[in-house]
Amino acid sequence: MEENLVIEKINTPVEMPKQASPEAPGTSKQVFVPLHLHSEFSIGDGLGTVPVIIKALKVKGYDTCAISDHGGLAGCLYFQQACLEAGIKPILGIEAYVIEDEKDKESGHLVLLAKNKTGWDNLLWLNGRAATQFFHYRPRMLLKDILDHSAGLICMTACTSGLVSKKIIAGNTVGADILVSQLKMSFGEDFYVEIIFNDSVPNQKEVNQFLLQQAAEKNIKAVVTSDSHYPNKEDESIHKAIKAISMRMKYSEAGFSDKTFYYLQDKDIMELASRHSYVTPEAVKQMIANTREVADKCSFLIQKETGNLLPDMMKFLPQDAGYEAWLQRPDTHVLSKIGKVQDE
User: Fold this and answer.
1) How many domains in the chain?
2) Chain-centre distance of CA 77, in angstroms?
3) Are residues 222 and 316 in the same domain?
4) In terms of domains, do 282 and 332 share one?
């Protein structure tokens, strides 16, 4: 039985694609890199299995993409494997639910992306703490933990449900200013304000303008994202149905207030931004270029482990009792059943 627990040794490490695979015929390569994208692992919110996502990315000309599901990293390995097979560079991350105090009931978002193994290890630690120490309806990270474990991570301010954005919308601009300063101090040049261009999301323009002002005052770079929840524009109605089911709402009451949360291309972003008078086309192009800068900083890939991946459960058995006798005790009847299954 022991032989079945040993994974075949792998001599070659998992590597990034040498170069991006050719895009679909008639589609030009995109400068824009989606850094804020949800899959089916954003339960009840993200639309698209990993294969569907990869197909859409190829069709639209992306050579790099991040995954940032709500409150979890479960989709990262699947996403990485599918990206590498398609010649796309994967970036692994999370859109975290964040609280500033353990007693907080409400949370806000931050997007965290792994640059390297140190960043990935910090993400695993933060995500574990979120699930075991601060779970309240959903896994929540403590802001102090994030600030203390920022090494190897990119941090972005997320959407209008972001931790910073919520303060802006509530009129607490002083609190938002302080929080931006904290994040800048902790993450340094790996902290970016996230700008999203759309037509009708409440308070989005207000949030964008405040964040751009903060960026100018504190020497922080801005990136543009589309906070993608579904692959194509025509998928909006399906996504709306998923939201209605997950939130137990009527179809007419569910979904987003804007229809731009699909995988935007460079031209889509420029067109949307043209309706926002507080930014110039040059500034928008720089925000798009900054997404490529973030992508270039990220080089982490999950490596396939070798050897026995199961924990050594025998070390938890009492040293002064026989194995068989201990398994037959009433308080270990579950282990006894496991032992019988293994013996068979």
Assistant:
1) 2
2) 12
3) no
4) no
What secondary structure does DSSP assign to 209-256, as a single string?
HHHHHHHHHHT-EEEEE--B-SSSGGGHHHHHHHHHHHHT--GGG-S-
* 253-288 per-position pLDDT tens digit: 776 767 888 899 999 999 999 999 999 999 999 999
- What CATH number does the domain containing 243 carry? 3.20.20.140
Q: In the block, which residue shows the tokens 């207030």?
A: 257
pTM of the model: 0.84
Whole-angstrom distance, CA of residue 340 vs CA of residue 5: 17
Phi, psi of 306 (to 5 degrees): -120, 160
Domain shared by 339 and 264, yes or no: no
**What is d(CA 164, CA 183) in angstroms, rounded to the nearest whole number?**
10
Give the sign of the dihedral formed by CA 198, CA 204, CA 209, CA 211.
negative
Q: At what angle do helices 76-86 and 50-60 cross, to 10 degrees?
A: 40
Is 110:146 a contact under the CB 8 Å cutoff? yes
Same domain, yes or no, for 71 and 118? yes
Q: Is 316 found in the same domain as 274? A: no
pLDDT at res. 262? 86
Report CA 163 to chain centroid distance, whole Å: 15
Q: What is the pLDDT of residue 243?
A: 78
Domain residues for 318?
Answer: 311-343
Residues 222 and 315 in one domain: no
**Helical H runs in 10-116?**
50-60, 76-86
Residue 133 DSSP label: T
Structure tokens given for 335: 């282990």
The pLDDT mean for the chain works out to 86
**131 pLDDT exceeds 50?**
yes
Are 67 and 93 in contact by the 8 Å Cβ rule? The answer is yes
d(CA 191, CA 183): 7
CB 62 within 8 A of CB 33: yes
Cβ neighbours around 304 below 10 Å, total: 14
The verdict on 303 and 331 lying in the same domain is: no
Give dist(CA 326, CA 174) in Å, integer. 61
Q: Residues 229, 326: one domain?
A: no
Classified as helix, coil or strand, 343 is helix
Give the pLDDT of residue 11. Answer: 43
